[in-house]
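Figure-free illustration: sequence to structure, shown twice.
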Amino acid sequence: MNSSTLRCVVCGLVLALSTPTLTSADLPVAPQPRVAKTKAELMLGRWQLIQSNDHVIAKPSLFLKEFFSDGKFHSLATTKKGSHVTNGTYKVVGDTFECHTLSDSIGKENLWTIKIITVSDTEATVVQISENEKWLWQLKRLPSK
């Protein structure tokens, strides 16, 4: 081996031995991948009904629904005739909320479903189905209280 080759080998060894060794702890950690919310998760919160079928909801009428993460919901319907409050529970089955209330006046059980068609952070389109009736609803999200 000639002297220039020997110098290259020695320099390479010195460089290799003097370079710090990286461990996995030294490497940057990638953030966890963002998992998109399900339609049911996006429906949590306060919503105002802005259109039912082809009927735009005009003032002074106001219809609000709020879904909570513990499986409860709250509804408020206000018209010229007065206000009606409904509290109940729901169960998520795929993209559908199965809702349940007891009527205040006669204790009759009410069951209906809300099928989520589209939902975003600001608006939703759902179909409410109750006793052979269907309503196509356009909703807009309201800020949390």
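We now fold a second protein in the same way, so the two outputs can be compared directly.
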Amino acid sequence: MKIDLVVPLIKTKMKLLHKIFLSLFRPGIWESKKKRYDVLLFCHDHDRGYKFNNKAYAQLTDSLCDIFKERGLSVISIATPFSQVTGRLAYNNPKNINRQFLWSGITDKLLSLCKIERLCARKYKDRVEKLWIKILSTNSPRLIIAIQPTYKLCRASHSLRIPIYDLQHGVISDSHPSYGEVFKKEANPKDLPTGFLCWDTSSANALDKWATNKGCKVLIIGNPWFKRFFERSKCDALVQKSNYVPIFKNRNKNILVSLQWNMNNFYPEQINNGVMPTCIERVIEKTHNHFNWLIRLHPVQIFNGEKKHVEKYLYDKFGTFVNVDWVLSTNYPLPVILTYTTLHITCWSTVTKEASLFGIPTALLDTEMRTKGKRYADYLEERNLGIADVIDLKEESIINWLMANVEKIRLCHHNSKENLNYDELFNVLTESKVSVI
């Protein structure tokens, strides 16, 4: 890795650790009064990719929070360790549990160094699981919904007989290490959630290959964040406040580029700037007068310290181009941006699946999605339907793809409202008669 990329990353990592350290002194879960809740929501800073009323907003879990509250249910949010954005900084005031988990980690280290872990194995073996049990018992939820819950959290939930569901937040396929059949066939059912809440049929089918045999439920509820923008209820303050103001006042076609984080570890020969493939960089430089380019940062880039490096690179490279934007393109809600997008380019972003709801073709630059590649099964349905194409990491390939697809009429291959069904989810909640003491 180049030294000019390493130094900024080290600095940003140090700042991140400093913020996490300060978060240890914020009020935690134990400072709140013990109360029984209907629903407990878990997510991390990385999942809070939107700002609403100057608070970090988790598009998926907070959308469910609003829906539950509309039904008169009580909802509490907890930020998974080691989140920085907690309390008043985020929507629904997520509770901070960093202090408890840091102490647990320090205790483990001390016991290991003192070489008494084996002697105290029976007492300390399930320390983290017991901590989760204590947290859950404090809030007594009837239902838990989390983004990729850990196996310790799942075990704690099962021990208290509280149903816990994993809410889809990205691609789910046979080749995904967290959701693919080959990776999960030996999994202990106790380490798995009660069920999975999926966006669509293809995601559910990938899980059905193994999850149902493990006793997990697989429910299709749609994408909660996109649901509200499809419905555009007049009572939805968030949607009503997010009306799109055109970024460019011209008639050029809008091309969306979805960035990924930690790109330094992928395709070093093609991505030597730490942000995007060099071939995309060159295409933008050559076509910025012909197309409008919307560059969207990944939420993790915003929270993990990459943001300054990414924004500096974008400013240095495209700052003088009037038809290239990355500020508003990142800050606007994705469903709004996609409404005005013509084509989408990415390496492997989940925006591929979300763009398909609008009939927007995607160019996938990840060569591992080709036959026998590590991620061959990713977006297989979209590729089979012709709404996504895997193309070479070459300037010529990207330009040819743009010209071949830019005038195509957008046809949604998904019925975007077909799977937006929360009835099964509310049935789970209705059937849950958990009493945690």
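Summary for the second example: Residues 240-405 form a domain with the Rossmann fold fold (CATH 3.40.50.2000).
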